[in-house]
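Researcher: Let's try something more involved. This one mixes different molecule types, so please make sure each is placed in the same coordinate frame as the others.
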Amino acid sequence: MRVGLLYSRVRVEERLLIEEFERRGIDFELLDVNKFQAEIHDPTPWQRFDAVFERCVSQTQAVTAVRVLESFGIPCINSSAVIEACGDKLTTSLILARNGIATPRVRVALDPETALEAIEDMGYPVVLKPAVGSWGRLLARVNDRDAAEAILEHKTTLGSVQHGVFYIQEHVNKPGRDLRVFVVGTTPIAAIERRSEHWITNTARGGQAAGFCITPEIDDLCRRTARAMAGQAGALLAIDLLENEDGRALVSEVNHTMEFRNSITTTGVDIPGRMVDYVLGIAERRSVNRASQAAAIAPTSAGVA
Amino acid sequence: MSATPASPTATACTCPECEANVPFARRPLQGEVVRCPDCNAELEVTSLDPVTLELAPEVQEDWGE
Ligand SMILES: Nc1ncnc2c1ncn2[C@@H]1O[C@H](COP(=O)(O)OP(=O)(O)O)[C@@H](O)[C@H]1O
Ligand SMILES: [Mg+2]
Ligand SMILES: [Zn+2]
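Model: All components are placed in one shared frame. Result:
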């Protein structure tokens, strides 16, 4: 059994995952996504892998490479469907909404003037987010019409085409923190709260992480979210939750390449170990399937049974 | 971007930004991100034999979790 680890940068997280593979004596290979190239008619060079664990920082690179590998029949964690479901906040919101999962209200508009109408109609404050983006970058909390006009103009003038998709989310008056739940398969394994003086609580932006005890309600919400985003088998996901003034948790977004460096000692859970368990489970099944397929087609001296 | 070569068994390399010594606590890995202790530049290991460090690229729009 052999596993590929597709990566672009070895951050603390990738280092921990690599060390986990090494500790277990797993046959694994580091695959630099910048060196990735594939002949789409020839899967043979890739057939040595029973699974590929994707950990790229660039979503475009990740989804492209994974689509190719999946079409060669190699299970990828996460799958391209999961990357696409999580990687675009509008796609995520649509999935959550149609599965009846509690999530903030969202409006989408495709023209700045129409977006302004939508914002006025929703009522201030609202949060504008790029549909594709992370680490708390380029989020705007808009408190009044003046700010809305300025941001919409800036987005239209300075932004790339994608910034012409106006994703407008209800502002949730959260209690100085948000929650992040780590899910392996469909099981929530650990959670943190992230506190900040700033309304943006990402640890990449200085938010402080502390362990959070998963309540039965949040456990259920996250299981349903994982199934909606990734099907019955689930995936490796980090679900961001916002608590509203009634104390109800709403799913804000779902991340497919979770960062967990601040969450191991704070939760006491071996997150990289649990992630590697999950990846190896998938690789193992594939390896066994391949062996039985090979046995079924191998000619035997006794002839066809 | 300049690349600074060092020997493959290097436990330290020179920062391309400020020329300070950047130590490696562990065996460097291709693609690893390290910070220069002197100038705080974010650096990436761009090759292993010899070990080279370059300034890490700017964050792109589609980067993230
Ligand atoms: N609608 C909202 N209301 C209140 N706070 C929000 C809202 N949306 C985002 N935030 C804050 O901003 C942070 C980043 O938002 P998120 O949607 O997770 O984007 P990113 O992908 O950049 O992490 C959240 O963790 C939360 O602290
Ligand atoms: Mg987030
Ligand atoms: Zn330096």
